Amino acid sequence: MDTKALKDKILQLAIQGKLVPQEENDEPASVLLERIKKEKDELINKKIIKKEKSFPDITDDEKLFELPNGWEWCRLGKIFNIVRGSSPRPKGHPMYFTENKTDYKWVTIKDITQFSKNNLLYKTNEYLTYEGSLKSRFIKKGEIIIAVSGSIGKTAIMDIDGYIYDGLAGLKNIIESETLVKYIYYILTTWKENLNNISEGTSIQNINTDKLNNLLIALPPLEEQKRIVAKVDSLFKLIDELDSNKQDLLQNISDTRNKVLQLAIEGKLVTQDENDEPASALLERIKNEKEQLIKNKVIKKEKLLPEITNEEKLFEVPNGWGWCRLGEISFKITDGSHNPPKGEENYTEYIMLSSQNINNNGLVNLEKSRFLSKHNYEIENKRTNVNKGDILLTIVGTIGRSCIYTNELKITLQRSVGVIDT
Question: What's the predicted TM-score (pTM) here?
């Protein structure tokens, strides 16, 4: 199970208004935006925050999908006061940095990686002195931090007060709303690829706060945000539980599959019908056809197969069934080349498979195959001559993986793979 892809799909549904139902009585997002604007203007008037540059108008080309009623498109910078982190220089100077734990926690990208749990950053590796804190940027508990250099887009919600270095930006709250913060956090995790696309730099990628301010956000009503966050939290929790128990789950699936197959081959999965033609008639028909193919020199006559002893019979078969050798019902059983030719340096249409390419569901990792010239393929293909409908079976290394060949590629085999034509 690809849990990341599943989570990404859930978030995509969420930010398009398709995860939870809309409620016509919800206060529209436009009212929330107006409340944030008034609060922001007040903070600017009091000179608590700086006035940002004017935001560009939102064009129709930027709108990636149609919003539900009550939603609004807006710039991220209209919801938060976005600030870039700051690092005391020189790094490690004892005037600014200390090995002792202080109230001035120094937050870097490594801390997001090491000390985030359930989206929350709860600890840091390093600490600043009081003088160091004056040269950094304070972000309080409950505010979002996001990497804007290096690992762009890595995001966390602060569960502590701290000071962020210059590779991070902080989304400082204009209004206090845990729901709004959590919703925007989820949006930013879906925007990681887009953030990388708008980054600048060569050896080290980065984005400036102007571009972060201008990110376009689909904003639902606050009450719907609550429903979205609750639904995402519950679904993510379920996915994480499934993922943590994945090995047990996979083992249970494997055991169940094996049990079903065991019942099937013992004749206990479905009821027998006394009107069915017995297997002995099928075996006789196959025998006659093989003899004709041998006579026509289409296939070679195989060695005489040994009689089946009672000791070999693992269980009692139902009426109409019969024990037989695999060779009795196969027209060809062979392995691949014991002395395979050297592969070509570049890709060709002539593929030589090994056991690594055989999965129980089909062929895999074909890009890692050995590619042959047409001449070498024609030589090797005389031995295996794999056709659509043949069974491929690993017989060296991890023995027993098998699949029915359903492709129409030009393939031949190495020794680690056998082919059965029934």
Answer: 0.60
